[in-house]
Amino acid sequence: MNRHECDELGGAMVNGLKLPESMREQIDDILAGRAQPAPARHAATVVVLRDHEEHGLQAFLLRRVRSMAFAPGAYVFPGGSVDPRDGEADLAWSGPSPAEWGAAFKADEKTARELVCAAVRETFEETLVLLAGPTAGTVVDDTRGDDWEADRQALLDRSQSFGGFLDRRGLVLRADLLRPWAHWITPIVEPKRYDTRFFVAAMPAGQRARDVSTEADRAAWVRPADAVERAKAGEWFMLPPTLATLSELAAFDTVADVLAAPREIIVHEPTAEIIDGEAWLVLPEKAAQYYPSGA
Where does the Nudix hydrolase domain lie (predicted)? Predict the structure, then answer.
């Protein structure tokens, strides 16, 4: 599943990833109803962006350690699954309401609140970038120091809820700094599945993005177009949603352009299929367009 292929099988072009032969029986069982796919957990991921004086628009990427059960060795954006406590309704909030986020992502209000909180919490846990501030119009200017690290660890081990963290610090969640970007669901053939909403956000002034997660072994600021080229050259492994997102972002020159772009959020879910006796992960059109024939 690490390489892309576009082949003409049975007279039709297949845009997708050829899967190992060992997965064929598993796909057959799921498609025939003899096995049930794993449930997809709600998750959020954030594309943190900055304008670099020399290189232009850049995105922050993490490379997952090869011991991870899901997407080992893949370059990804910060993010993770929802904590049930992310739905706490009494935290200070600035920006579009959960109902407005729900309309954008076609989710109920509670789920939308959880997704926005998860987006901000997971980004802080993995990079120390915090989209929150002491007022509705400000952001924390620096998250370095032992006290911030203690809070990050408390969020990681779930001894502290995200709402409790913000309340104790007297911080307001800045939902207005996020924009909805995409919605992807892990294909049914995967043992771990996520129903993931993608957000974009500008890197807050004064803060620094760092690799502080034990789930990653490398961090990089990179031009979206450069990241796409490295993925297509086989230098960097990326899952289709990451590559599709970076390919879209490559069309923009600045963070402001990205944040101002109108978006219609459509659900994309690659499908596992048996085509001419071979196992394939067929990509939705949204991703397939970034895998040209012969790539």
Answer: 40-244
> Of 141, 130, 135, 44, nearest to 93 (Cα)?
135
Name the residue with tokens 């893949």.
74
Three-state DSSP at 87 gives: helix
- 8 A C-beta contact, residue 72 and residue 41: no
Residue 7: exposed, middle, or buried by beta-carbon count in 10 A (0-12, 13-18, 19+)?
middle
Q: How far is CA 174 from CA 128, 134, 238, in A?
A: 15, 10, 29
Q: For residues 223 and 68, which has the higher predicted lDDT (pLDDT)?
A: 223
Q: Give the number of other Cβ atoms within 10 Å of residue 213's Cβ.
A: 20
- Quick one: angle between helices 146-156 and 109-127, nearest 10? 130
Both structure tokens of 243: 């590559």
Q: Which residues of 56-88 are buried (b: 16+ CB within 10 A; e: fewer)?
A: ebbbbbbbbeeebeebeebbbbbbbbbbeebbb
Tell me the per-residue pLDDT of 266-275, one tens digit each, with 9 for 90 and over.
Answer: 999 988 888 8
- List the single range of 3-12, 29-38, 274-283 with lowest mean pLDDT: 3-12
pTM of the prediction?
0.89
Q: Which CATH class is domain 39-223+240-264?
A: alpha beta
Q: Which two tokens stand for residue 90?
A: 């009494």
For the chain, first and last CA: distance in Å? 15
| Dihedral over alpha carbons 214, 219, 224, 226 (to 10 degrees) | -130
Where in the chain is CATH 3.90.79.10? 39-223+240-264
